[in-house]
Design brief:
The structure holds two protein chains of two kinds. Chain A is mainly alpha-helical. Chain A has three helices and no strands. Chain A starts with a helix and ends with a helix. By secondary structure, chain B is mainly alpha-helical. Chain B is built from twelve helices and two strands. In chain B, a hairpin with a 4-residue loop joins strand 1 and strand 2. In chain B, helix 9 packs antiparallel against helix 10. The mean pLDDT of chain B is 77. Classes of the chains: A mainly alpha, B mainly alpha.
Amino acid sequence: MSKINDTNRFETIVSAVLRNGMSVATASLVTGLLFWMFGLFSVVSAGLLQAGLIIVVGMPTLRALLAFSRFLRAGEWSFVAITAGVFAMLVTSLVLAF
Amino acid sequence: MAGCLGSLLGISGGIFLVPFLILALELPVRTAVAISLMTVIATSSVASSNEGSQRLLNLRLGMLLQLTSTVGVLTGGLTAMVISEQTVLRLFAIISVVSAIIIFSRLGRRNVTLDPDADPGRLGGRFFEQESGGVVTYRVRRVWLGLGVSFIAGNLASVLGIGGGIITVPVLNVWCGVPMRVAAATSAFLIGITAVAAIPAYYVSGDIVVYLSAAAVLGVLFGARVGFWVGSWSRAKWLKLLLGVTLLAVSAFLFARL
């Protein structure tokens, strides 16, 4: 039973992280776009838009990190290795791009 | 619209967005693809952010498929060199039609058993389903097929800017024994990281137009909320029907363009 409760708690944490992250990103993007449309504070507007998009991109990555910690805590080593492999691919995509 | 279907069916909607951006807004292909990838990521996060979808998600299966999907992204550049965009689109149209036909032929069949004590195996799972009024169990079959398909999906994602859910969801549901809702939730998880892996190449080449991406992301976020609302009261059969119709519409559109 404790395993089931643990699972529910993990899901609650993940969805809270995703929800809050996306709310922050939305607020940042809306404000940034409004500033851009009215030609106000162009530096601030660009910064807000960039920040919003970076948060959007960061969310799935954070999510995979949470999954990694969960597999680690549950001692599911084959899935720890698989998740590490996925991160290796993400890093490779960054390295190849630059 | 794209976001709505995305959160409902676990597909990203890039399949509608990319042609729209290229044909209606006359954007360069790479810019359209980059914008679409951003919306794919946003759809993924929103679709996964509600707890219901978290419970349906098969994290083990998702992570396993993620591995081949990211490899697919990394080799996307090679694919783009070997075969033309038109060939990819043509293949895509054919796959869509085949998937739609199979989904229609299996509308009444379910992948789950009502026995909560049935063994789900290493990759399977169980979840509470309103429709059946109890805990249902499913097993994952033909994992190799799922792995192959997610490789192709990752490959297409990096070249075409689609999430690839439009092929992953039907294959998982029809051949791998994964229930529709679980397939959609798992695909929503998959497409996010897949698109993240594809983004750096577009960022470095300066193809991410910040204000256009922001506007597209906001549109998709709004659509995704509508998708939740619809998804909460629809039956698995209707979701399959919708997916089938979407697939047919997409292939009709692709054939019309080719």
